[in-house]
Structures are given as structure tokens and as C-alpha cells.
Design a protein that fits this description.
Helix 6 runs antiparallel to helix 15, helix 7 crosses helix 11 and helix 16 runs antiparallel to helix 17. This protein is mostly helical and 510 residues long.
Length: 510
């Protein structure tokens, strides 16, 4: 191993040890399941904002988004980013405060538990369905994060992929199982800072290596449709394809997913004071816009580096490693640049770990709290339930490791499918639960089932038909699930008076 590789490894190991240390330090603050899964509702505004966005962006920000921009230009990546930025802001603006108030009022510590409590679902059918969807969509999502870590160490240090993947997963499992939600949120806050540093470093270095802004733009202009928001570059033909209005709406529909993301909504539920959500919203929205803009530009700069002969051409899913390629070039300039390159690589690890830890918590809470405690009514004392929660997290992570055994997968594709699943199954019910007093449990149950099932149907049966049917599955599944929820609620008995009174009481809070 060269001196530069050792320097990068030192930065990466130092970062991983820091995450483990945070987990150990915060483990003593977990005395109840509520502490483990919601941090006792003690998050400050900055940790709330940055941990929500770090857990949101995942390795998609530093791998998927630049990779898409590198291959096809700014249209696909740009409209996705615009949709996500709008969704981020609206989620903080209209969902955060009422969800924080409602979940505290009806004593809910998970999203599935909130659904049943909101609708007076004593049989906990809503809790069970929601918990199952969380497991179905989060386990492969988490597995993709483990795989990303394995690919990173394998490509950089020629370490066996499986060994690297397992070691990375073990670190994530350890600090999350030890420190719970507080550890996940605190490390996510740290990771958001590391991710920001990584983006800035790569942008500046890559631009210099590509020959400056002028050269980057000249190279990009040489590709038809590469810099257009209404056309996209097709690398297979070397020509451009029209980015139609339907495609724009379909792509921007990524923003709808925010209303149903459990690991993001949990941050709203956990802030110490809902009056501080305005500050959190501003911090989160600004960070998201800046970070995604830089990520898209990095993809374009990466192509400029390829045109300048500094980076080998990348095809298909390999384009998602453009930041890794740029970082390896940086490390060749000496020990200090190699240490800085290690920080950049830590940013990629951070983007993966910040999402995986939150997903593990959400999935394990679905097993221990939502299914065992809420649905099957197992009555277990606080210490044993805390132990069961940790065991559930470890078991789910092990399943994720097995699913990540095959490294040949696209981060962007896995994330987009899981994102659609949560957005369509949970998004409509969250909005109606918070803003429509006439919605009832029957509408919620059918709407949640419809949304989740339609994502599979549209993805694998309808979308392959092409043409007008080639729409991102989140958009039709979300709209149809919303319509079904409303229609069934209106066709069935109105909710009980105590539920309507509770809704009015929460809405009247100042």
C-alpha cells in the first residue's frame, strides 16, 4: 500500500472511530424505547435540520446525482433536484409542526404508531401495514448503503468487497445499536458537515483539473442537449433526446416522496420545541439547494476531466464513482492532499452511513415497537424492550448485509424505487391525517395498501410499456392512493367524535 493510500486510510479510520465514539458516549442516555427511537424529543434546531437532510440524501447525493449528470447532462439531475428542493421546503413548512404536535399529543414514538393512534385503530391494523412497508422498502435501501461502502474500500484499497462491506456495516450497526436515535442524529449532523466539505473540495479540485470553468463549459456544449433543461444527452447514440413536459413532471415528482419518509418525519417528531422548526426549515432548505447544485455541477466537471484526459471515461452505473475517481487523482499529489482526499471519501461514507443508521432504526422500530408491542400486544418491561429493539436492529442489518452481497447494483435506481414506495404509501395518509378531519381509518388502510402495491405494479408492469406510461411510479401511485383514501373515507362512516375533537384540539394549538 502506497503512502497516499495509507494517508487516505488514516482519515477514513479516524472518521469511523469518531462515529463509534459518539455511539458509545450517547448509549448511556437510552433508558427507554422512547429514548432509543425518538431521543426523548430533545433535538436542537440545527441537529434536527442537518440530521434530517443528511439522512435524506444518502450516497445518492455524492454518487447517484453526480453520476446521472455526468452521463446525460443537467436535465434529469436538475429536475430531480428541483423537485427534491421544493419537496424539502414544503415538508418542513406544512408537515413538521402539526406532526410534532400531534405525535406528542397522542403519545406516538413511531410513524406507524401515529397512524393507528390518529384514527383510533385499536386493532393496530394500520400499524402493522405501515411496519411491513417500512421493512419491505428500507431493508434493500439499507443494503444499497452497505454495498456502497464495500465498493468504496474495494476500489480504493483493493480490499475484498465482502470484507469491506461487512466491516462498514458493523460500524454502522454498532454505533446505532449503542446510541439509538440520539447517536444517529448526532452522527448525521457531523456527517452533513463532512459531506459539505467533500462537495466543495471535489468541485474546486475537479474544476482546476478540467482546465477551468471555460473548458468545462466548452466540453459540455459539445454534447447535444447536455446543458439543456428541455433536452437530455443520450450517451448510447451521441445525440440528444427531448425532455418532455410529462418527463419533467414525472421527474420533479420526487419531491412528493418527502411527505412519507419515516426517517425524515421522525426528526420533526423529535425536536425539543416546535417553535424552533422555522430555524430548522431555513437551515435545511438552504443546505439542500446548495449541496444538490454542487453535486450536479460536479457531474459536469467530471465529464470535463474525462475530456481533458484526467479521468477515464465512465459508463453506466460506473458513472456513480466519478467523485471517487476525482479523489484518487487528488491523492496522487502528496501526503497532505491524500489526507484531504480521505476527508472527501469520509464524506461518501458519511452520506451512506447517515441514511443507513436512520433506516435501521425505523425498520427495527417496526419490528419491536410496532409489530411486537403494538400489534401483538406483548407486554415487556422497558429494559427488555430496549434489548429487543437492539436485537431487532442487528437482525435487520444482517439481512441487509446478505442482500448487499452482490455489488452490481445502481444506487440511483434502488433509492428511486424505495423513495417511491414510502412516498406513495405514507405521503397521502400523512397529509390527510394532519389536515382533513373527515378522513378515517378505512380510507387510511385502503390508501396505504393502494400506494405501496401500485408502486410495484407501475414499476414492473405498466412503466415498461413506454410512451405515456413511462412515468416515475411515485407520481401515479401517490395520486391514486390519495384519491382512494378520500373516496373510501367519504363512502364509510365518519370518524368518532373523540377523534374529531382531538383533531380540532391539535389544530387549535398555538
Amino acid at each position: 500500500m502506497s503512502g497516499e493510500q495509507i494517508a487516505m486510510l488514516v482519515s477514513l479510520v479516524g472518521y469511523l472511530l469518531l462515529m463509534v465514539g459518539v455511539g458509545i458516549k450517547l448509549s448511556e442516555k437510552n433508558e427507554t424505547v422512547g429514548d432509543f427511537y425518538l431521543g426523548g424529543r430533545k433535538l436542537g434546531p440545527f441537529v434536527t435540520a442537518m440530521s434530517a437532510e443528511a439522512s435524506d440524501m444518502s450516497s445518492w447525493l455524492l454518487m447517484g446525482l453526480p453520476g446521472v449528470a455526468y452521463l446525460s447532462g443537467i436535465a434529469d439531475a436538475g429536475w430531480t433536484a428541483i423537485g427534491l428542493a421544493a419537496g424539502t421546503y414544503l415538508n418542513w413548512l406544512i408537515v413538521a409542526k402539526p406532526l410534532r404536535r400531534y405525535t406528542e399529543h397522542n403519545k406516538s414514538i413511531t410513524l406507524p404508531e401515529f397512524f393507528s393512534n390518529r384514527y383510533g385503530d385499536r386493532r393496530k391494523i394500520l400499524t402493522l401495514i405501515a411496519a411491513v412497508w417500512i421493512i419491505v422498502f428500507f431493508v434493500p435501501y439499507t443494503a444499497s448503503g452497505f454495498a456502497a461502502c464495500g465498493k468504496l474500500f474495494n476500489s480504493l484499497f483493493d480490499v475484498d468487497y465482502h470484507a469491506a462491506m461487512i466491516l462498514s456495516a458493523a460500524v454502522i450497526i454498532f454505533y446505532t445499536a449503542m446510541g439509538g436515535f440520539l447517536a444517529a442524529s448526532t452522527t448525521d449532523f457531523i456527517q452533513s458537515i463532512v459531506m459539505s466539505a467533500a462537495l466543495v473540495i471535489v468541485l474546486i479540485f475537479g474544476n482546476v483539473q478540467a482546465g477551468g470553468i471555460g473548458a468545462v463549459l466548452e466540453n459540455a456544449r459539445s454534447l447535444p442537449g447536455y446543458l439543456s433543461m428541455t433536452h437530455s444527452y443520450d450517451p448510447s447514440t451521441g445525440g440528444s433526446v427531448v425532455y418532455s413536459a410529462l418527463t419533467i413532471v414525472s421527474t420533479a415528482a420526487w419531491g412528493l416522496g418527502y411527505f412519507g419518509m419515516p426517517h425524515i418525519l421522525l426528526r420533526f417528531m423529535a425536536i425539543e420545541d416546535d417553535s424552533k422548526l422555522k430555524l430548522s426549515r431555513r437551515v435545511a432548505s438552504v443546505w439542500v439547494v446548495i449541496s444538490m447544485t454542487i453535486a450536479v455541477i460536479i457531474g459536469i466537471v467530471g465529464y470535463g476531466m474525462t475530456a481533458a484526459g484526467r479521468v477515464d471515461p465512465l459508463q453506466g452505473s460506473a458513472s456513480e464513482t466519478i467523485i471517487v475517481e476525482i479523489t484518487q487523482l487528488l491523492a496522487q499529489y502528496g501526503i497532505i492532499p491524500a489526507l484531504i482526499a480521505g476527508v472527501v471519501l469520509s464524506g461518501i461514507l458519511a452520506s451512506t452511513m447517515s441514511t443507513s443508521d436512520s433506516q435501521l432504526l425505523a425498520a427495527s422500530s417496526s419490528v419491536s415497537n410496532d409489530i411486537l408491542s403494538e400489534f401483538f400486544h406483548f407486554r415487556i418491561d422497558a429494559k427488555k424492550m430496549l434489548l429487543i429493539s437492539r436485537i431487532s436492529l442487528i437482525v435487520i442489518a444482517i439481512i441487509g448485509v446478505f442482500m448487499a452481497w452482490d455489488p452490481d447494483s445502481s444506487v440511483f435506481q434502488i433509492v428511486s424505487f424505495a423513495w417511491a414506495g414510502f412516498g406513495a404509501s405514507f405521503g397521502p395518509i400523512v397529509l390527510l391525517a394532519l389536515f382533513w378531519r373527515r378522513s378515517n381509518r378505512y380510507g387510511a388502510i385502503t390508501g396505504m395498501l393502494t400506494g405501496g402495491i401500485l408502486v410495484f405494479v407501475w414499476k414492473f408492469a405498466v412503466r415498461p410499456l413506454g410512451g405515456l406510461w413511462n412515468i416515475y411510479e411515485l407520481l401515479p401511485a401517490f395520486l391514486i392512493a390519495l384519491a382512494v383514501n378520500v373516496a373510501v373515507s367519504l363512502a364509510t362512516p365518519a370518524p368518532e367524535k373523540e377523534l374529531v375533537d382531538e383533531f380540532d384540539a391539535v389544530r387549535a394549538m398555538k
